[in-house]
Amino acid sequence: MTTKDAPHAEPEKGLRLLRGSGINNKSLAFSPEERRELGLRGLLPARINTMDEQVQILMNTFRSKSTLLDKYIYLMDMQQRRSTLFYRALIDYMSELLPVVYTPTVGLACQEYSHIYVGGRGLFISEEYKGEIADVLANWPEDDIRVIVVTDGERILGLGDLGANGMGIPLGKLALYTACAGIHPSYCLPITLDVGTETEALRSDMAYIGLAKPRTRGPAYDDLIEEFVRAVEKRFPKALIQFEDFGNQNAFRLLERYRHQSRTFNDDIQGTAAVTLAGLLSALHMTGKPLTDQTILFLGAGEAGIGIGDLIVSAMMEQGMSEADARQRCWFVDSKGLVVASRTDLAEHKKRFAHDHAFVSDLLSAVEALRPTALIGASGMPQTFTEPVVKAMAQMNAQPIIFALSNPTSKSECTAEQAYTWTNGRAIFASGSPFPPVTLNGRVIVPGQANNSYIFPGVGLGILASEARHVTDAMFLAAAKALVAQVTDADWSQGCIFPPLTQIRQVSAAIATSVAEVAYASGLADFPRPADLRAHVIAQMYDPRY
Q1: I want to staple 361 with a disulfide (CB 3.0 to 4.6 A). Which of 25, 246, 302, 337 is the partner?
Q2: Are residues 251 and 316 in the same domain?
Q3: Which residues are catalytic?
Q4: Same domain, 283 and 320
Q5: What is the pTM of this model?
Q6: pLDDT for 226-242, tens place per residue?
Q7: 138-176 burial string, b = 16+ CB within 10 Å, else e?
Q8: 296 has which bridge partners?
Q9: In a shared domain, residues 85 and 184
């Protein structure tokens, strides 16, 4: 069974069809014969539209909305009522719709989620269901789930603890699994684990949809996660579990606990690492310098930063460096200052990057002391790549690599325009959320977006196609290299280190093939290896059309 042929119920008839879940609802695209057969005559007006016409109507209505939140609400309504049309439009207008379906607008949507809540879009598993999670999972109508994105809402983008409001993240991620990699929506399940929130403003809001209590921690929390993972494995034995936007104190240890037991990964740690490594390798194509000669300084030592550092170390080791020497090339500044061996306040996940060096308390001092070739921001702290910091990078490097990765846009360490202006156009820049092209000295420079949507959909498709039992770091390293292979001379000539989003399905197919290759080479694939692996991968990809 391929994703393209994913099973779903026979279409309902009449009003139930028009008011149903949306996968079979063609609205005014139903032909006269279909209207007769399905009991739709009189329930629809006389006009018959093609799908292309419907896409244009959708886009015209979308563009008429005055606010980003109104645009988001409109698209989510279309996803629920007429999902085939929604995915067709998202694929055809990826560059325009992605920033609304996902970052940066999804951050605003999560902040307002309780006030725009519409039911039936995923599962909320409250801690009050402890001991009964299997029964809750049984309420989901689809039996063959292949991808689950789950959050507990503690660290939504750079916005903090949004509790049950974090459901917007799994919804957005899974929309991208379908649009970017062709994984059929019937295979996708968004889940929020509701264990409370530390945000008092939410707990005191009458409209808040989650448990209005402080967040549960410790053994009770761990027991809930364990029950959840085991219940998923029993109910959906082929499902990939993607942990999303968990707090630092849980994200690393849950990944380490389950990565070798279950089919799971953490996109904030591993997906971010892969897209950033790809961006770094692509930038080095422009500078002509090898990876093993780089010194990388990170601002932020949480999930994203440490995950990126770990994958860069793996890539350097693949190119012949020892692990110790590779780690020595990666330095971190956290909220207290430079991460060094003499500090006694370091969390466990930071210690492997704590080197012998004099402590400095601020980023500019760290730049001046370490003379990095690349500066990577994953801090959630806006405008921390100040003009003195960026100019110092430009004094040390002919083409300084500046990655301001924090999401949403309001949290970015600097803007594309600032990075280019302060370096006289010499910076190689990437951000987490999109920035428009910048015109400087008569040249149009296109900033890269280190968007995880380049990586996780293809990884998920590769896991689905191979039925790999586990997700490994080698798969993310392969995904990063496959992404770089999709960048062209035309992209590099305009300063962009990633391929255009319009090619995302081609990119995802290439990544999925590389991930599946790793699965087969490492003996982790349960699906028999096909003669033509790429053709097999492409055969899984759902193409939303009537």
Answers
A1: 337
A2: no
A3: 102, 173
A4: yes
A5: 0.94
A6: 999 999 999 999 999 99
A7: eeeebeebbbbbbbbbbbbbbbebbbbbbbbbbbbbbbb
A8: 330, 374
A9: yes
